[in-house]
Every structure is written in structure tokens, then in C-alpha cells.
Design a protein that fits this description.
10 strands; single chain; six-stranded mixed beta sheet; globular; Rossmann fold; binds adenosine-5'-diphosphate; 299 residues; alpha/beta; 2 domains; binds magnesium ion
């Protein structure tokens, strides 16, 4: 057990009870894990696997049925620690009739910030999440992506050390997703610890340092994302374009070393990359179209 972990859970369990107090759903079963300062930690799992339950236990919004949980060195039920935590819930519960400025001002007041600090913090956050153009529009007019952005700004109002994000990218289009992932990486660059939940595998792979895979309320896998995905019994060498003769020479060299070529191909990028490059290119050159099979930014 490391002394300086930001989050420590030990055999943490939660069983929801029905109206008569009878055990109903075992939402989390004996979760033991540590989150270290400055890392982006991903809770990954299908719907109903216990991600939201875990985050709520960390905040002390739910009481564990069994086990222990400490956050920032305090037991989770001590709510004063929440002043150092930012939380983006799965569904934002923001006031629909306030605009972005008013929303952040309202939450700044809850943290007893002075008018001058509130204004400065509001300006910083609105710029960070890219809502300058919409800061005076009521939230009821916001798109899903804009709602997620103002939700994040609200979660950061108190400049928290630890940020808990419940499904930060759900419902966002690829551009909104990319922006949200960049914002999460920026939080890490600012020295914050981030715990995010997601059922979207690519999002977790792109931003998280370590992940835990939950299934049916149980921890199945935990580790460093790169280590978990690396296939150690193969070696990949990437070179510039090779002629067929060069390839067969390489094959004979490998043979000499007792190795075999398993495949020879051109690397592919992801559909997300292609999509983002297409949007960039369309902004730069509005009239341009690509012929079938052609792709923007391919060299
Ligand atoms: N308030 C509640 N009362 C009863 N069961 C609940 C409650 N909240 C969640 N559950 C159940 O607990 C399990 C885990 O839910 P949740 O933590 O929300 O999962 P996830 O966030 O991974 O989708 C699910 O089976 C869900 O139906
Ligand atoms: Mg959830």
C-alpha cells in the first residue's frame, strides 16, 4: 500500500437495497485499487458494471456496504475533502435558464469565492472549454457537446486537485470527443489527478495511463495501458517504402536469426484520424473534395 496514493479502496463493496431494505443488486464487489497523484486513471466496463457506483462512493454520496475507501488522505464520507475534488456527473444537473457566465458565478459563490476571483476563474474556464461564443446563451439552448463542456468548467471551478469524470465523452461527436480528450490531457499537464469512467474503449486507450476493467461489479484487470496492450513475443519494425527485392532480402536476414516474417503491409491509421484530418482539410480548403480512394493528408 503506497502512502501517498490519492485514492485507496480496500475490498470496497456496495449492495443496493430495495424499498424494504432487502439486498437487491451487488453493484460493486470487493474492489481494491490505488490511484497515484498526477495520473489519468480509467474505469472501463459495460453499462451496469459499477463505474458510477465507484465514483459516488469516492465522493461519499453513497455509503459502502463493506470495505474501506480513502480519498486525498481522508475517509470518503468526510465531505470536507470534496472541496478539493471536481465532479462531472453522468448527467449534468445544471440550471437550464442560466447562461454559462451565471452558472459558473453561481458555483463560485457556493465556494465562497470573491466577486473578483469568480470573474477571473469564469473567464479562464470559459476560454479553456471553448465556450466564449456562447457564454451568454441559456444552457437550455446548448448542444450535448456544449453541455458537457460547461459541466466540465463547473467541475473545475474550485481548481480541484482530483477530478472525477463520469462518462465525459458519451454522446459527443468525434470533434467534441477529441476536444474533451485534449482537455483531460491538459488537466494532467496542470498536475491534477483524473479518474474517468467510460464504456468507449478508444477514448480510454487514448488518454489513460492506467485502467481498471470492471465487469459485473468486479475488478477483472488493472494495469498500465501500454503494458496491457503490448504483445511481447513479436517485434514490429517500421520502415520507409520497400521494393519486393528488399523485402525478400529482409526475409532472408530474419531467417538467419531464426525469425519469420508474419505479415508485410502498409500501416493504417484510425477512422478517427481520417475523420479529423478531413474536417481540418475542409476548414482550410472549403471547396475541395476527394476522389474515391483518395484521403486527406496522405503522403
Ligand atoms: N440506486 C440504485 N438502486 C438499485 N440499483 C442500482 C442503483 N444504482 C445502480 N444500480 C445497479 O447497480 C449496478 C451498477 O450500476 P452503475 O454503477 O450505475 O454502473 P455503470 O456506471 O458501470 O453503468 C447496475 O446493475 C445498476 O442497475
Ligand atoms: Mg454509469
Amino acid at each position: 500500500m503506497s502512502a501517498e496514493a490519492v485514492i485507496q479502496t480496500r475490498n470496497l463493496s456496495k449492495t443496493y437495497r430495495d424499498f424494504w431494505g432487502r439486498p437487491k443488486v451487488k453493484a460493486l464487489n470487493s474492489l481494491t485499487l490505488d490511484v497515484q497523484p498526477g495520473e489519468i486513471f480509467g474505469l472501463l466496463g459495460p453499462n451496469g458494471s459499477g463505474k458510477t457506483t465507484t465514483l459516488k462512493l469516492l465522493l461519499g454520496l453513497l455509503f459502502p456496504s463493506d470495505g474501506e475507501v480513502s480519498v486525498l488522505g481522508k475517509p470518503a464520507h468526510e465531505v470536507t475533502k470534496n472541496e478539493r475534488i471536481g465532479y462531472l456527473p453522468e448527467e449534468s444537473y445544471l440550471y437550464r435558464f442560466l447562461n454559462a457566465d451565471e452558472t459558473l458565478d453561481f458555483y463560485g459563490k457556493l465556494f465562497n469565492m470573491t466577486a473578483a476571483t469568480r470573474k477571473q476563474r469564469r473567464d479562464e474556464l470559459i476560454e479553456m472549454v471553448g465556450l466564449q461564443h456562447a457564454r451568454r446563451r441559456q444552457l437550455k439552448e446548448y448542444s450535448k457537446g456544449m453541455t458537457r463542456r460547461i459541466g466540465l468548467a463547473q467541475a473545475l471551478i474550485n481548481n480541484p486537485e482530483l477530478v472525477l469524470l463520469d462518462e465525459p465523452t458519451s454522446g459527443l461527436d468525434p470533434l467534441g470527443t477529441r476536444d474533451m480528450k485534449d482537455l483531460i490531457l491538459k488537466l494532467k499537464a496542470d498536475g491534477k489527478t483524473v479518474v474517468m469512467s467510460s464504456h468507449l474503449l478508444a477514448d480510454v486507450q487514448d488518454v489513460c495511463d492506467r485502467i481498471a476493467i470492471l465487469y459485473g461489479g468486479e475488478l477483472k484487470v488493472v494495469g498500465n495501458v501500454k503494458d496491457l496492450l503490448e504483445s511481447r513475443d513479436e517485434t514490429q519494425i517500421m520502415s520507409s517504402q520497400l521494393s519486393p527485392e528488399a523485402i525478400s532480402e529482409v526475409e532472408s536476414v530474419l531467417k538467419k536469426h531464426g525469425a519469420t516474417v508474419k505479415s508485410v503491409s502498409h500501416p493504417t491509421s484510425t477512422l478517427e484520424d481520417l475523420f479529423l484530418r478531413t474536417v481540418e482539410e475542409s476548414k482550410a480548403r472549403p471547396g475541395r473534395r476527394f476522389a474515391p480512394g483518395e484521403a486527406p493528408g496522405r503522403v
